[in-house]
Specification:
Length: about 325
């Protein structure tokens, strides 16, 4: 079996993150051999980076040529597009520097990421057709629209890796059907694109893998004889590493919140902000659920007013 990642990428990952998680190491091994892969792991296990790093490593190490669209990332959540691009900015910058400083040949270090969804402007869509990014983030609906135009089909004809995220969210819906049909149309354009699926815990996992793999035409089929056509399921390696998550629960009681607008209202929220600021400082990240936009923005402002180096965002 070939090495999962190039030495440069491996060295960068170890320095940046330390040891890989089980889902990352197993996904890299399976993907390196060209298999279709379904990675099943909880949120926070690093499975998204596992898929991205496979693609980026191939681009940087010249296993995929640049100057054309090579990696397609499809998610049912349009809002993930901007997040994905922002999350890749750091690794792209650091990997570029690592490969440029390494001895020996390497691929392009100018990898561009495009976003294609309903919010993409007409000028940006034309730019993607005329100067394709190496990495395109899109949705099932936008992928199908691309497949309807000559320019879109030309753009997609060079894809070699397709990353399908959040499979559990659409596998049993009409959007899932739309997606798998688009994948087979993509195969007609680009050939047998490697599929890397990402999902949270899903049952039964075998059905999710079948959804990801779909069916390929048999090698011995005769177009003139419809009765000889018996499609064959694509084999998909299922990655389901065992993982344990430590959960600690602490219950704190607070005085009943005052009626909004009363003089002591700010004091109540400031008390909560003080407690939260204390906890935030002790953690790497904290997620708080607030029951309204108004109060979440107020609480974020109060947390940020403290002297400690704590930063909160309302979303």
């Amino acid at each position: 079996m070939p090495a999962p990642l190039s030495p440069v990428t491996t060295d960068w990952f170890i320095k940046r993150f330390g040891s890989p998680t089980p889902v990352q190491s197993e996904t890299w091994k399976a993907a390196a051999s060209g298999e279709h892969v379904l990675a099943v792991a909880p949120t926070g296990s690093g499975k998204t980076l596992a898929a991205f790093l496979v693609a980026l490593d191939r681009l940087y190490s010249r296993k995929l040529t640049s100057g054309a669209l090579r990696v397609l990332y499809v998610s049912p959540l349009k809002a993930l597009g901007t997040d994905i691009r922002e999350n890749l900015t750091g690794p792209l910058r650091e990997l570029k520097a690592a490969f440029e400083s390494a001895d020996g040949p390497h691929g392009t270090t100018d990898i561009r990421i495009g976003i294609r969804n309903g919010d993409t402007t007409p000028s940006e869509r034309r730019r993607q057709i005329n100067r394709p990014p190496e990495f395109l983030v899109t949705t099932p609906e936008s992928l199908n629209i691309l497949l309807l135009s000559d320019g879109g089909r030309a753009l997609l004809s060079t894809v070699e890796i397709c990353i399908l995220d959040e499979i559990h969210a659409i596998a049993s819906s009409r959007r899932g059907t739309l997606l798998v049909c688009a994948l087979e149309r993509l195969v007609d354009l680009a050939g047998e694109v490697q599929r890397i699926g990402l999902t949270a815990t899903v049952r039964p996992v075998e059905r999710a893998a079948a959804f990801l793999g779909g069916y390929r035409p048999p090698a011995d089929s005769n177009p003139a004889d419809p009765g000889s056509y018996h499609p064959v399921p694509r084999e998909v390696r299922i990655i389901t590493p065992r993982s344990t998550k430590e959960i600690r629960i602490r219950l704190e009681t607070l005085p009943a919140p005052p009626v909004p607008g009363r003089p002591d209202s700010d004091g109540f929220w400031r008390d909560i902000a003080i407690r939260m600021r204390r906890d935030i400082k002790e953690k790497r990240s904290t997620l708080a659920f607030i029951d309204s936009r108004k109060w979440s923005e107020k609480l974020a402002r109060l947390i940020n007013e403290g002297e400690e180096e704590v930063l909160a965002w309302a979303h």
